[in-house]
């Protein structure tokens, strides 16, 4: 173990220092067109060091994996992923190499997670080194390590090698079957996906929702509508038809296969939608020559706003012009709220100032709420004053403005606003909430203590506050409005 890692440190991996010792993390070896023969020679030398232990009963399994890795290295003389290969893994992997060198050891969870990270980053040479490590320490037969290896080689474009890993596995579960099905789905090999699925069901393994999304992806890419409908029927039978990711995959499959009516039916009957849902629906409409309208984009922007997807929302807003649509005030309001919720208050204010249409009270109110949420007094004052110029009789805005002035010590302005409210006979509308218990609606208003069970309610609130404090949650109490604001 120590010999192998020391060899890696001397010959292949970049250096970093720890406790007066020199180490080099895994996954820092850059695969490229230069010095290919030298790189391959060093990699093959590692294989000679990770020879099987004689005490392990599955020696043949280890040898087959050694042959597999050797074949991969010999056949991969150039970067299989082009110049975009990222060879720096997460910090957790680097620190874990230190632990291994110090003799603390690793477990199956670490190896599986490390391989998964390499797969998600398309880090081929980092992943193959962890493959060697799995062989060396005897974890190669673990089903989760094997499943992670399948995903790694599939994502690196080595589907044949991924299938060899799958074929070598002595034990397979739904994760490993799904991993290889997903690998063939990436190549749109619907025939192979369905064959693997048939074999999996023959073993009485219960597929999960990701298994079905992979099958739908294969059907979508190959245009196999009939197979896609068959998968849809099985999804309904298994009870996965209400899963958001499955519904998104169904919309994409029907849209790409040209059956926009079925895609629209699923879309309209979904309980919840995310940006992927809207995007899949729009792509399908465009394929069929049906352009989205202003209402469609309003729904997309609303989803981005609630999901905090700033870049996506800006992209969709900009694409309205490409579809021959002129944004309306509601669309502008969504973008202001999107930026404000994300704390991009200066960007939101600049967006308002450069709008080709005059902002309404709703837009300024949205910026005011975001300013209070993120504690930006000056932009909040600007938003409140701008909203009052459009709605001078809005008592809630006047009250918020007075509170903002007070927070910066502008007491003359506080007195002016209070006097203005008094002269106009304006009183703040009390905030209220309600809850239905046993078919009866209970209403609560700010500072209303007429409820006979108020003492018990306050005790519960105090208990909740103590619990939040114990969890290190920050919260504020608005004295004027008696509102709890959790942050």
UniProtKB/TrEMBL annotation:
Keywords: Repeat. Coiled coil: none annotated. It comes from the Eukaryota. GO terms for molecular function: RNA binding. InterPro entries: E_motif, PPR_At4g14850-like_plant, PPR_rpt, TPR-like_helical_dom_sf. It holds the Pfam family PPR. GO terms for biological process: RNA modification. PPR repeats lie at residues 173-207, 293-327. This is PPR containing plant-like protein. The lineage of its organism: Eukaryota, Viridiplantae, Streptophyta, Embryophyta, Tracheophyta.
